[in-house]
Model the fold of this input.
Amino acid sequence: MRNYANLINSFVRKQYYPHLLLVLLLAILSGGFVSLKGLESAQAAKVMEMYVAFIGLILFTPLFMPEQDKAIWNLERSKKTSMWKVYLFRMLPAALVCLLVIWMFLYQMKRGGGIFDFHILFRGSCCEIFFLGSIGFFVSAVTNQVIIGYMIAVIYYVVNIGGNNYLGKFALFRMMKGDYGTWMYWLLGAVLLFASGIVVREKIAYHKG
Amino acid sequence: MFGTLFIKECRQVLKSLVYYIYVVIFVLFITSQMSGEDELREPQPGWSYYGMTVTQDTALIMEGTLANLIQEVGRNSFATYPIGLYKEVNLTDGEIEQVKAILEHCTGRSFEILDEEMEQQFIQNGVGGASYQAAVKEGLTYAEFEAAMEEVCDLVGRGSFYEKGSYENRIRVPMTYEQAKEDFDALSTIDGLTRAYMRLFCDYAGIILSVLPIFIGVSRALRDKRAKVQQVIFSKSASGTQIIVSRYLANLVMISIPVFLTALLIQQPFYYRAQTMGVQGDIWAFLTVPGIWLLPEIMTVLAVSFLITEFTDTIWTIFLQVAWAITSLISATTLVGDFGLKLVARWNTLGRTLLYCSLEKELFFNRGFYFLLAVVCVILTVLVYEKKRRGGESVHEKLRKFDK
Done:
């Protein structure tokens, strides 16, 4: 267990801290850009879906960053510790920070007199934000390029701003239009993409090895 | 030397997976957005509806804007959209009194009377009835109204309804047959159909091009570092200007090729359609319109991504530029015009040629600004590159040393 703790610690200190700082910055600066006071459910959902959603993308996409350097990847694979466990342990701080930030935003909005169902918006936001993050996670797992992971996740977000007729139940920004029923699809998408990201990556490593 | 470097850089782009993803996403996005845009009928007298238009009638603008202000003062809740997302602003008692004084100056009636009038109008019109309008003081000029709204903006802050660009684009009225016919005639004679379609193409393409070139720029700027050949390239005889400018131009050309090709392919059916309607279409519109509209945007997005990535040796610019693009996109007060200094210039309509002609100078100023910004960023990238070459460190390297 100590090994895994060390792995997480080293990953956060050497590679991941700028992303955590960015999330912190996004939370601190939110007061200047968005109002968290007196929001109705559609307005609260808009804050979560259009602003807070970015944290999923920022936190989950760069989890394979160290292995972009093939030498590091080969070295890690030569160790006894399974890579899939390493990836899962890296997801832990990302998921925890993500949940914490979502909770904090919703708490602030509720404290500011927001009229919305806390639990429903929390559930929907978590699923949607994890889903957006899982897109970046999966693409960077498959391509071993964080840039492409960000590219596809950002494009998915932008395409949803432009109009999401073709994305069906996996379209974003549904809650701010009053549709709270798609959380299951987001959750399913997120679980599938996270799991297949790790599986595909293990396969790539196996074939390369 | 420059030509050889340019060709080599083009080959580098062609080896990049990011580039092919860019091409696929660009083409899919444009074709999906433009596929339903072939509805074009000459307006005929007697239709019940000719569409809506933003009114230029200053009396209606003043009445509608003041009505909105009365409602927000009553609630002491002012809706603002500083980056496109809702932000409520509450004023202090002193500030509210100042706004009430402004209202009194514009309408000639006290806030209490205005509030009463508003309630009466709502009762008379009922839910879904005509929207509330506040009659202005006799003799109030539009210039006085503009000055008054500036004062309100100073109190409320950025992104409110009382900004000139917002209130002048908000009050919509039904179009008359004459207006619709005039617009259609201008579309045929001034735009020759094809230029209007190309403006719509630029609207959609501008959205996606505010983001896609970032990734190509970052990917290229970091490739040498990732391949661990930075020092080898530093030692070559080519100057930093040659290396960076050839790299930049090669990426710019490769990004632009799919844009102009798609524009050409999309334009063709409309060019033939113009001919069947007896209209002389502009065959070069696929070059001239995106050349003015999109090229400065691509140049800037690419140049900024080069500069920040070269300066930091990280992917941080992705977050910065995506935030910039999305802010520009969602902070637009209208989807037709309001160019200002926005990175993404919107024209989400087919036609409105006369309105476009009146706003063309604003667009040229906007695009000229971004053209110059791109040139400045490329020059700065050369300077940063030369400094690194002489042994300087990027911000990222300095931070890593600090960490150790």
